[in-house]
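Worked example 2:
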Amino acid sequence: AVVSTQSGHYGREQITRLSCHEKEAMWFYLMASYGEIYGSVLSVVSMFGLFLYLLTSSDSGSLIIDTLASNGDNEPPVTQRIFWALVEGGCASSLLAAGGQSALVAIQTASIVAAFPYTLILNILCVSIYIALVQESRNETDPDYDPPAFSIGLLDFVTTWQPRLMKETLKNVFLGPYNCGKCLARINHSKHPFVWQITLSMLLIGLPVFYAIEIQLGIPGSSSIAWTCYLGFVFYVTGARVLLRQACRIPGNLIAGRLYLFSSFTPICN
């Protein structure tokens, strides 16, 4: 839909309403709005850029698959890489030929859903890199600085077979407030950790309990109470984490610890 208008001393101009056209043609109509000559040039340049983007994306994906298929070889065979690129293109073409536009939308939706968990992982990695860089710079500027050494890694319960570590990990999955209460009692030099254990247990159990009340009994507002209980648990354990870091002289970030706890309390309790 092209409408001609008179715009003062600038002469006649054309206003293009892109929503009147199909999605595949909108980009070319947008380029055509720059004039016949510039529009044609920009259309060719944009198509070439899109071709390079698809080519490099396919090349990167083929390299990853080829590396995995070669047992982690950093320089896999080129012919095998070409084979995987052709297989990827064949699979995509088959899906488009079988399902048409609906198949393309389904693939796009599946890729977005599959990539969402990695967004959280990337955020955690950004914080981890920042912490590592801060410690490294402190090692260079302060020769007397003794960084904390951890005897247990975060994924040791998966990568190594240690029955005791596996037992503690399962305990933290199902009985997270138990160890947190013991830690708080030890920090506060108390022999009775049950006060903290009961408080943390009530806050954590409140999440599924109040959700079940709203779903089964239909009482409105119960989900808000459920999330309030979980946020209370997060803030409580974050405070314990801060006290533990201060007692052991371990550098850390309050906001990062709170985000970790909000996503998963098991590694923090571990």
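The first helix runs from residue 23 to 32. Confidence is low (pLDDT under 50) at residues 1-12.
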